């Protein structure tokens, strides 16, 4: 392995030098941590050489950026660890290994995807043999670790596809592109749908046949469809491992024909029904969550842009459904941690798309995503078959729903809620209507107080609930006031307890 090429030492050093970062955090997953010291050393040397070339004196290069190695990330290793970077007051993060490319909130990041090996010729041959039988145009997508090999794969596919040009089994091949390896902080993505972007024809360098109207983004990839085409018209060809990125891809585009080329084993897998079964299980969890009374909101990220908005939205959603909700921050969740909250009937996991799906088999209560919570707790919501993983998409859709709801007004003249009720006809009418609405709301609250039809006002918060429960854990106040369990047994050291008789 070419070490400097694999870790992109030159590109990273240029990035740090160009933007004049002074404190840089290097984030490694566990499997790459063994190379961290060597990467830091190589980067330090390269940055000093760049400073010497620009300043001309070795003395001035002593002000090179300080590098800090981060490991054991707070949450998923695919996300930029802004919490860990804040501990060393870093102004930039260099992220190595598998990444979800989720937007950050406060700090820029440069992602080094790595360079997984692949046989381009074998990949091209496998794809063309299957596409010739399928008869659909092909859209090639890939894991980010294979982005470095895409030029070779494109060249091999071009040569291989020429064999079918003159036959009836000819087909067209299109490719997705990497969005960017640099993540720019974004305070709010409420108005951006990161999966399906309905935008103008701008930045259309990747379009297929001129005019395009729909852009897609998922797993750090982007592509466009020609006008008049839908994604189901294409054969989706995924190059990569069966990992969280592929699962995200399967769930989002489960209605399309998908095949996967396993670069490690070197074969094409056409049956992805096993992954598709995940969707049925997720729908089962949604139905089970509808019966929940107490809901825990698990914080699975402290860095992905929009996570606070998502937490507030979930709290509002659960409360409006007449259920109890409280937020839990515990790092990476596991069965032992969540077992401390047996009162929770279901948990909502707010995290990036590639860590959102937790297998609930080992947990006492099911764990669902924000999108699944929207279906479970929104009155009248039905699952249409579409599936959303990015919680930024959920925020965007919720904003549209709130806007629609806010347009409805109660009309006492017409005896119900109407969509286009105009309150601007007169101030007297407006004041009268508002006062009647307020009186009616108070009457409904008093009427339902005893029947508890609307119990959310009387629902206790999570802190109040746990403060009132019988068991709150063991408390050690001092040596003279131990709880009863601590008085059971012997005192002293094993070599000679206090009550042991010397023989």
Automatic annotation (TrEMBL):
Its cofactor is [4Fe-4S] cluster. The keyword Metal-binding applies. Coiled coil: none annotated. Pathway: Protein modification; peptidyl-diphthamide biosynthesis. The keyword Hydrolase does not apply. Keywords: Iron, Iron-sulfur, Metal-binding. GO terms for molecular function: iron-sulfur cluster binding; metal ion binding. NCBIfam families: diphth2_R (TIGR00322), DPH2 (TIGR00272). Belongs to the DPH1/DPH2 family. DPH2 subfamily. Required for the first step of diphthamide biosynthesis, a post-translational modification of histidine which occurs in elongation factor 2. DPH1 and DPH2 transfer a 3-amino-3-carboxypropyl (ACP) group from S-adenosyl-L-methionine (SAM) to a histidine residue, the reaction is assisted by a reduction system comprising DPH3 and a NADH-dependent reductase. Facilitates the reduction of the catalytic iron-sulfur cluster found in the DPH1 subunit. This is 2-(3-amino-3-carboxypropyl)histidine synthase subunit 2.
């Amino acid at each position: 392995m070419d070490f400097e090429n694999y870790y992109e030492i030159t590109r990273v050093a240029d990035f740090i030098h160009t933007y004049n970062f002074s404190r840089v955090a290097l984030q490694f997953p566990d499997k790459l941590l063994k190379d961290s010291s060597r990467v830091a050393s190589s980067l330090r040397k390269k940055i000093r050489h760049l400073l010497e070339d620009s300043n001309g004196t070795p003395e001035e290069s002593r002000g090179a950026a300080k590098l800090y190695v981060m490991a054991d990330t707070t949450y998923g290793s695919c996300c930029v660890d802004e919490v860990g970077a804040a501990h060393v007051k870093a102004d930039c993060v260099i992220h190595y290994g598998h990444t979800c490319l989720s937007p950050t909130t406060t700090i820029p990041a440069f992602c080094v995807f790595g360079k997984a090996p692949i046989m381009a010729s074998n990949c091209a041959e496998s794809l063309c043999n299957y596409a010739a039988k399928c008869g659909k145009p092909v859209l090639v997508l890939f894991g980010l670790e294979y982005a470095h090999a895409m030029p070779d794969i494109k060249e091999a596919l071009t040569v291989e596809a020429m064999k079918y040009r003159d036959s009836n089994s000819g087909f067209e091949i299109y490719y997705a592109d990497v969005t960017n390896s640099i993540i720019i902080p974004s305070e709010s993505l409420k108005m951006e749908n990161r999966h399906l972007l309905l935008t103008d024809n701008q930045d259309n360098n990747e379009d297929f046949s001129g005019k395009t109207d729909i852009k897609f983004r998922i797993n750090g990839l982007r592509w466009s469809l020609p006008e008049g085409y839908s994604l189901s018209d294409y054969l989706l060809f995924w190059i990569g491992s069966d990992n969280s990125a592929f699962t995200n891809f399967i769930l989002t585009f489960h209605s399309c024909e998908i095949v996967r080329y396993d670069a490690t084993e070197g074969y094409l897998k056409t049956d992805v029904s096993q992954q598709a079964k995940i969707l049925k299980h997720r729908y089962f969890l949604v139905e089970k969550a509808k019966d929940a009374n107490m809901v825990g909101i698990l914080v699975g990220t402290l860095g992905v842009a929009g996570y606070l908005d998502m937490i507030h939205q979930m709290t509002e959603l659960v409360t409006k459904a007449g259920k109890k909700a409280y937020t839990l921050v515990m790092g990476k969740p596991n069965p032992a941690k969540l077992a401390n909250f047996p009162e929770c009937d279901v948990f909502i996991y707010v995290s990036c798309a590639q860590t959102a799906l937790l297998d609930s088999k080992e947990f006492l209560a099911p764990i669902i995503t924000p999108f699944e919570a929207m279906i479970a707790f929104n009155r009248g919501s039905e699952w249409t078959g579409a599936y959303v993983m990015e919680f930024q998409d959920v925020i965007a859709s919720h904003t549209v729903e709130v806007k629609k709801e806010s347009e409805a007004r109660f009309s006492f003249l017409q005896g119900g809620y109407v969509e286009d009720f105009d309150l601007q006809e007169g101030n007297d009418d407006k004041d009268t209507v508002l006062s009647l609405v307020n009186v009616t709301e108070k009457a409904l609250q008093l009427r339902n107080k005893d029947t508890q039809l609307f119990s959310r006002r009387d629902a206790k918060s999570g802190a109040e609930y746990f403060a009132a429960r019988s068991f709150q854990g063991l408390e050690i106040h001092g040596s003279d006031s131990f709880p009863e369990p601590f008085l059971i047994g012997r005192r002293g050291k094993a070599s000679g307890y206090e009550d042991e008789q010397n023989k």
